[in-house]
Amino acid sequence: MILNQPRSRQGREVGDKDARLSTGSDSSAAARLNWRNHPPVVSPGQERGNPFESVEVQSGKEETAYESGIAEKGNGDGLEGDNGVGVGVDGEGEGEEGKESLSWRERIRHFTWTWFTMTMATGGIANVLYSVPFRFSGLHTLGCIFFILNMVLFAFNVSMISLRFYFYPRTFKASFLHPTESLFIPAAVISFGTILINITQYGVDTAGYWLEQTMAVMYWADCGLAVAFSIGIYLIMWSTQTFTISQMTPVWIFPAYPLLIIGPHAGILAPKISNPNKALNIILSGYVIQGIGFMVSLMIYSAFLYRLMTQKLPKESMRPGMFISVGPSGFTIAGIINMGQELPHVVPKDFMGEGMGEFAGKVSMICANWMGLWLWGLALWFFFVSVGAHWSCATRGKMDFAMTWYSFVFPNTALTTATFAIAKALDGNRPIQYVGCAMAILLIIAWFMVFGMMIRAVVIRQILWPQKQEDRTEGGWKSPSIEEQRRRGVGEGMECGEDVKS
Predict the structure, then answer these.
(1) Could you report the per-residue pLDDT of 286-315, keeping only the tens digit for each?
(2) Membrane-crossing residues (predicted)?
(3) Exposure on the CB side of residue 360, measured as CA atoms within 13 A
(4) Which helix (H) or strand (E) holds 335?
(5) Which fold has domain 109-459?
């Protein structure tokens, strides 16, 4: 009988109509029973969603249907111009991605640039420990431990992402063109700059003149990298991607972050340079580049606030990225105050006019202090907004781990060092120093929690897994499934703007 065979959609509609016409007959009861027991049929249509939401893979049957060509007839993700995600629905099963297993070599394929946020946060902790005004035995040693650990983790990240590009060469270009992963490429430059800052803090006074000169040269290299990567990543985004305001998150600020650490770098390095002219050049360049980074971030701030007014808060899994909005103000405060404090000691006698050097240096220091105090309020405002946005996440426990959790740490290290800088500008204000010390303790606790959660996430496959990291399918990209990954073999990269070939 036809009722005992799999039926097409048209056949099911006819059978369903017949069943409604004879609801009292035995055949209609058999039809209803057969329909209830019929296996689910995959629909080719998929919902379009926010490309920055996490992607979950549906059942193995649905994936099989996609591979056989059913999904190619619909609006499946991976099609050109589709900024939706639509691969799964939050809360549903893991599908084949949760049932299959991958070797470590295959998991390395999903080692993305976001792993450098770990080294950003670790170096930030070392920076905070160096800035604590209340020195005691062991504090310097603890800072050195984080500094050395940061260099080890940085070498680990460089090795792992190099292996990814070596085993899967096409993923290198894909990482620069992916709508989300490309935003985090500057994290490697920021990590490099943070290491240079730590070397200046913990090494120059001990090693002597040779390291002083080396770090002066490396400072200019850091400036060049920051400007090049910031401009380059934004140009790639503006040339290859199309975003809407509903997709906006503070992660859009991230390509400007390499510029934002130049000011703090200059403020820390200049006092350690023995030649006043070289120190002045470092401070002037620090003000220029810091100004670029902050003004670009400020313009993106407006888009973020507009997005919050029109689209509500981001999805729970994306809310840690809201702390990125704290960083621009925080780094700018630390940079301009530290540079301003050093200016009176390095300006020549006729700086900005005959006999005006001393006066110009003091006025510049005062202006820097007031500007820092002004921006400190802005940083605190964004901090409290970001904390409040996580209240519902904390009460409902609806956050899966992602490497963006290091946003709990790194931007707030900027706020902490900014707090210490404000206290310094106000002649060592004790209450503000106490607040900064409390923040430093909380940051260290947060770092250990996030680091532990990261290890747990690797074990339970929340990261380093298909569709779990920033190389996932979205915005016209199709990331291959486990079976496709194995079928294509080593050397196959992500598909850009094309359907997956079976």
Answers:
(1) 999 999 999 999 999 888 888 888 888 887
(2) 113-132, 138-163, 183-204, 216-237, 249-270, 282-309, 321-340, 373-393, 405-426, 432-459
(3) 13
(4) helix 327-346
(5) Glycosyltransferase (1.50.10)
